[in-house]
TrEMBL record:
This is Tetratricopeptide repeat protein. It comes from Nonomuraea rosea. Gene3D superfamilies: P-loop containing nucleotide triphosphate hydrolases, Tetratricopeptide repeat domain. InterPro entries: AAA+_ATPase (IPR003593), P-loop_NTPase (IPR027417), TPR-like_helical_dom_sf (IPR011990), TPR_rpt (IPR019734). PANTHER family: HTH-TYPE TRANSCRIPTIONAL REGULATOR RV0890C-RELATED (PTHR47691:SF3), REGULATOR-RELATED (PTHR47691). Residues 72-301 form the AAA+ ATPase domain.
């Protein structure tokens, strides 16, 4: 029978205990195959389809290449000058042909010309493999090994890969899929000769012709306005050198001023280009002059926000974060963001957030920030943003974990306007929506030497990881948090981050590494005289022992931990240790003994504001009653816990309850129902690489083997 492990919900610090024989990938001999359950969506990573003007001839050329008979994967390199619309073209075509690639569409912005460091192929491969269903703990660390595994996984698949803004051929080569039924589209300003020599097909995208340029203006400004000022419109087209990005920026300014004659824009743009002519050459003049002119027409406070937004660590930002960055009110932030959107410098997206209209626009803003804003301006702006993220994440954490008080969240002064939440659901939704930005903020704080901010931010994200999983990302965040804690010489912080990292490693099945981290934390707590935290590390070592299959050690450690917590008067932590102990007993088929410990744990939790762990106790009771033969009571407990976890918004908790219900159905011979429960659990979890993910996946695959 496949092992049942509730590792993601065992303690509100994660990890639980393995029930039954554990299937671990590191102990599998022979070939490893990756299958995705039918209910899981294939990767569909393409950004929204842009509006495309003209380009019919290039689209036809691309279609002809794809239809040519070949036994090798098609790779197309789309090149052309900056701002010519390579990204829009490739993305529009990718949407047109996506139905031909049923195994998924992968997308990566390689950031070859974004002003920062290009994205490494190693990182992109990690993201791609994860999206294709490879568990995190099976993704190797080295580039060559990742590339080999990527070729293996894609060998028989039909996938479409879009690699935008490449810098070099070396950045692209490891990301090419192996299947002849797959296709890859690469965009770059450069003719990457190393790729072309390998048989990659090249497509050059030229500037618009006059008519296409006028069509773009007509769409933005209306036919009447364009026809009435046709001569000025034609001059504007040439001043923008018929580049779509320059035309779009100019058109946005004109659209926001319906009474403004096109002739005035022409005059201003011509003067701007005369100033730039001595500094830049070629098409850069048209792009820079269009962006500069749009920028110069911004009011000072709007221009300041434009520059500061280039400092934002993530790709998408909301009004509250922008307000903190600039040190302005939320109302003022929303107004200024609207002005930047009207100027086509920002794009508003569906979730109420914004991003730069194009990587070149962000680069333009960054260059202006470096030139116009001294470090004395930039550093405090970043500090305000990090302070807002720390304070807001701390508010969300308190909503989700109200029993945790006096946590160190003082690395930055509190923001002028604190964002709070109406309840746990709102808090969890915010944490999930800001997950990428919070992770980037942890890294940014560490890179800038704000070490206390970095580890405290990492610590605030634990509530998100507890409820939602995200094991791969969680590991990276906590490794950065540990490095930051060590850099600032804070033993307390180091101990906390060691515990966090150990729990993440344990949840991924890396038990030996987890033990090392827990033992390091244990030594710190003993040095600091933190008895309760010392017991916590011993308890976590019990969890790791359970993961290793050493049940006797696990039971001894967890029994001792529950007794020590009880002596310290820590009712909540006593309950958590009892739940862990019950998990080990379940692994030994001692269901009735487990029920005794779980009922006591539930009684202790009734006096604590901890709905998550109370629901978790219910899930374990469902498993315990099932093991002791009381299937009706097991069903009642599991369904009640499923409802509670759904109300809390915890994907981890819902998946655990669904897995229990699936096992009950399987015990009763209802295989179809059991499979549906397992597939629902797997879909809720996502491909997070945890022990639980691998276990449920194995359950589903066993149905396929057994027919």
């Amino acid at each position: 029978m496949v092992n049942r492990n509730l590792s993601e919900i065992v303690h509100n610090d994660v990890t639980g205990v393995v029930h039954g024989p554990l299937v671990q990938a590191r102990d599998v001999f022979g070939g490893v195959h990756f299958h995705t359950a039918a209910s899981l969506p294939v990767p569909s990573q393409l950004p929204p389809r842009p509006r495309l003007v003209d380009r019919e001839a290039v689209i036809a050329q691309l279609d002809a290449m794809r239809e040519e008979p070949t036994d090798v994967p098609l790779t197309v390199l789309i090149t052309g000058p900056a701002g010519v619309g390579k990204s829009a073209l490739s993305l529009a075509w990718a949407h047109m042909i996506r139905s031909h690639f049923p195994d998924g569409q992968l997308y990566a912005d390689l950031r070859g010309h974004s002003g920062g460091d290009p994205v490494s192929p190693q990182k992109v491969l990690g993201d791609f493999l994860h999206s294709l269903g490879v568990p995190t703990d099976l993704i190797p660390g080295e580039l060559a090994q990742r590339a080999a595994l990527y070729r293996t996984v894609t060998r028989d698949q039909r996938v479409l890969v879009l690699l935008d803004d490449a810098m070099t051929a070396a950045q692209v080569r490891p990301l090419l899929p192996a299947s002849s039924a797959s296709s890859t589209v690469v965009t770059s300003r450069y003719r990457l000769a190393g790729l072309l020599m390998q048989g990659v097909r090249g497509v050059y995208v030229d500037r618009f012709d006059v008519e296409a340029s006028l069509t773009l203006l007509r769409v933005a400004l209306g036919n009447d306005r364009l026809e009435q000022q046709h001569e000025a419109a034609s001059e504007l087209v040439e001043l923008c050198m018929r580049l779509p990005l320059a035309l779009s920026v100019a058109a946005a300014r004109l659209a926001s001023r319906p009474s403004w004659p096109l002739r005035e824009m022409v005059t201003a743009l011509a003067e701007e280009q005369r100033t730039l002519a001595a500094l830049t050459i070629g098409d850069d003049v048209a792009l820079r002059s269009a962006l500069d002119l749009s920028y110069r027409e911004l009011r000072p406070d709007t221009a300041r926000l434009y520059r500061l937004l280039s400092l934002f660590p993530g790709e998408r930002f909301g009004g509250d974060a922008a307000a903190a960055l600039a040190g302005i009110t939320r109302m003022e932030s929303r107004r200024l963001l609207g002005e930047l959107t009207d100027a086509n410098l920002l794009t508003d997206i569906s979730d109420g957030r914004y991003r730069f209209h194009h990587a070149l626009v962000r680069l333009h803003a960054s260059q202006l920030a470096q030139a116009d804003d001294q470090r004395e301006v930039r550093d405090p702006a970043v500090g305000r943003l990090l302070a807002w993220y720390l304070a807001t994440a701390a508010c969300a954490e308190r909503r989700l974990r109200p029993y945790r008080t006096q946590l160190p969240r003082d690395a930055e002064p509190p923001p002028a306007e604190v964002t709070d939440f109406g309840g746990p659901g709102d808090a969890l939704e915010w944490l999930e929506s800001e997950r990428a930005n919070l992770s980037a903020a942890v890294t940014l704080a560490h890179e800038q030497g704000r070490e206390a901010t970095s580890w405290q931010l990492a610590d605030t994200m634990w509530a998100l990881f507890l409820f939602m999983g995200h094991h791969a990302e969680r590991l990276e965040v906590e490794e950065t948090g540990l490095a930051a804690a060590r850099s600032c010489g804070d033993l307390y912080a180091e101990g906390k981050m060691l515990n966090r990292l150990g729990l993440s490693l344990n949840a991924l099945g890396r038990h030996d590494e987890a033990v090392t981290r827990f033992e390091e934390a244990l030594e710190i707590w003993r040095r600091l005289g933190e008895r309760e935290r010392e017991v916590g590390s011993l308890r976590r070592l019990g969890l790791a022992a359970a993961g290793r299959g050493d049940h006797a050690v696990a039971i001894a450690r967890l029994t001792d931990a529950s007794a020590a917590y009880h002596a310290l008067g820590a009712d909540r932590k006593t309950a958590l240790a009892l739940i862990d102990l019950a998990g080990v007993l379940l692994e030994q088929d001692r269901g009735l003994d487990a029920v005794v410990h779980l009922e006591r744990a539930r009684d202790l939790l009734l006096g604590v504001d901890d709905a998550y762990n109370l629901a978790r106790a219910g899930i374990f009771l469902g498993y315990a009653h099932a093991a002791s033969g009381d299937h009706d009571e097991a069903d009642r407990e599991l369904r009640a816990a499923l409802e509670e976890m759904a109300e809390l918004g915890s994907s981890v908790g819902r998946a655990a309850a669904l897995e229990g219900l699936g096992e009950l159905a399987e015990r009763a011979g209802r295989r179809g129902e059991a499979r549906r429960m397992y597939e629902n659990a797997l879909e809720i979890m996502g491909q997070d690489g945890s022990i639980g993910y691998l276990r449920i996946k194995a359950r589903i695959e066993s149905f396929d083997r057994d027919g």
